[in-house]
Specification:
Radius of gyration: 23 Å
Shape: globular
Number of helices: 23
Structural class: alpha/beta
Helix content: 40-55%
Length: 503
């Protein structure tokens, strides 16, 4: 039997053909529900995480007022728009593990707006009374956050464009859209919507609040800035689910194994986690009913964030940049190398763990073991280029804070320095065998120029003040360790150098 195209008309036939091996939405959609969430940045992670939680709320608990309206801010999002529209905004989530593959069709995304089509429509959607939450997966660079000053990158051309009142109806950045919509709600006497970051940043909610209120002040509207700061809500959150890029082979496997023709399914692992601060300005769905940890204490969220960002995301950096230099293609291939696996374990245990807070009921050693198992999962085929994307927003978040804390207490950090040195080498765009690879990073031109100018001297790159603080540049032990690692990697390559960093 030929695979069935994923759409509303074929849902019943798909379920029948799969003999209940796949779950389909049984809840109301389209005009029968309210779109209480507007989500900016509909990519793989959003569709495997927040959209799945909302799907479970709609499926199991009859929630009808928190369907999702997706938003894409860049012209590149046109493919997602077209794909979702062709499938009545549904898609398949494929969970893979050693136990096999399981598939669910998710229908919680109810519509999709592309800013390039109609920017006013996006602002109006956010400003609509039905919208209670605007959620974000815009990557670290989308926050225009200066890691050194902890302030908004107000000099960025896109921010400058949006700060011009003449462009208020045609914004470019997330903050331009948020400001325009919130100003409209303020004028209408509505509550501000909650701005809910689902990105991998410590204190993501607090950073979002500060960036947006700073933007409002720079627009010269202190009244709106004060209203956002006092009445708005920006919950801090920790999010976790490994979601590799979808490959053509994934689409073919879905057709062969489940008989579903889905132009853009999502492949992910069974594991999923979300800890979020209970701070919402205009209501929220009962996320706790579907396993989300909704906590009153922001300090608890920050502790979970710190564990996850420094262990999982920090380890992803340790796998990605050296791994690509060494010629690997997938995460599980890196973990199959015993020396590399030992390096990663010792980095987590000896250099990251000492700076982490204790959380009641959380065993850090068990968490580290679980991460090793998740990274070793060969069935999800997680590509190294995916976890290497936009490193300028990752290394300062995931690696450098552990190094900085080690500097303060004169603790060990040589493995962390090896990871940072590998990223500096990675910026040259050539692996240890001389093969070229592509790099995606919003700061690529500046960083690549400094990497080439600096060679094996780290100071050129460390001089980028938006990424690295003075506590790093001014520490002699750190600079010396970085230089040694950079020289070793440049001379001998990653795999020959790594044994020096394994006890």
């Amino acid at each position: 039997m030929a695979p069935l195209k994923l759409n509303t008309k074929n849902l019943t036939q798909i379920a029948s053909a799969c003999k209940n091996a796949i779950k389909i939405p049984s809840y109301k959609r389209d005009n029968a529900v309210k779109e209480g969430i507007v989500h900016i940045g509909v990519g793989g992670f959003h569709r495997a995480h927040l959209a799945v939680y909302v799907d479970q709320l709609m499926q199991k608990h009859g929630v009808t007022d928190y369907a999702i309206a997706g938003v894409g801010l860049t012209p590149f999002d046109a493919t997602m728009r077209d794909t979702l529209r062709s499938q009545d905004h549904m898609y398949t989530v494929i969970e893979r593990s050693a136990k096999g593959s399981f598939a669910n069709i998710v229908g919680s995304i109810n519509s999709y707006l592309l800013a390039a089509d109609d920017r006013e429509a996006v602002v109006a959607k956010m400003a609509h009374p039905d919208t209670r939450i605007v959620s974000l997966t815009i990557t670290e660079s989308g926050y225009y956050y200066n890691e050194n000053t902890h302030e908004l990158q107000s000099e960025h051309p896109d921010i400058q464009y949006d700060l011009d009142p003449a462009n208020e109806k045609q914004p470019k950045t997330t903050f331009g859209f948020l400001y325009a919509a919130l100003a409209r709600r303020h004028a209408a006497g509505l509550n501000p919507f909650t701005v809910m970051s689902c990105d991998n940043m410590q204190k993501n909610g607090s950073i979002t609040r500060h960036m947006l209120t700073s933007f409002a002040k720079l627009r010269g509207n202190d009244q709106i800035a004060t209203w956002i700061a006092e009445k708005g809500a920006f919950p801090n959150a920790m999010v976790d689910r490994i979601t590799p890029q979808t490959s053509p082979a994934d689409k073919e496997a879905l057709k062969e194994n489940f008989g579903i023709d889905d132009a853009w399914p999502v492949v992910t692992e069974p594991f999923m986690d979300w800890v979020i601060e209970d701070q919402f300005s205009d209501g929220r769905p009962a996320f706790e009913k579907v396993g989300v940890k909704v906590v009153k204490d922001v300090h608890a969220v920050e502790q979970f964030e710190k564990h996850k960002l420094r262990l999982l995301n920090g380890s992803h950096s340790a796998i990605g940049y050296p791994g690509q230099l060494a010629g690997y293609a997938y995460v599980h291939e890196v973990l199959a190398n015993d020396t590399y696996r030992t390096f990663l374990w010792q980095m987590m245990q000896q250099e990251v763990k000492p700076s982490l807070p204790e959380i009641p009921g959380v065993n850090i050693d068990d968490y580290c073991k679980t991460l090793i198992e998740r990274f070793s999962n060969p069935t999800i085929m997680d590509q190294l280029p995916r976890i290497c994307l936009n490193a300028s927003g990752k290394i300062p978040q995931f690696i450098m804070p552990s190094i900085a804390e080690a500097i303060w207490v004169t603790g060990p950090f040589r493995r962390l320095c090896f990871v940072a040195a590998a990223w500096f080498r990675y910026l040259h765009g050539v692996d240890d065998a001389g093969n070229k690879f592509d790099i995606e990073d919003p700061m690529l031109a500046e960083l690549q120029a400094k990497a080439k100018a600096g060679g094996t001297d780290p100071m050129e790159l460390l001089s980028v003040k938006s990424l690295f603080g003075d506590d790093l540049r001014g520490d002699e032990r750190f600079v010396k360790t970085m230089k040694e690692a950079m020289e070793d990697i440049a001379r001998d390559g990653v795999l020959k150098t790594m044994p020096k960093y394994v006890d």
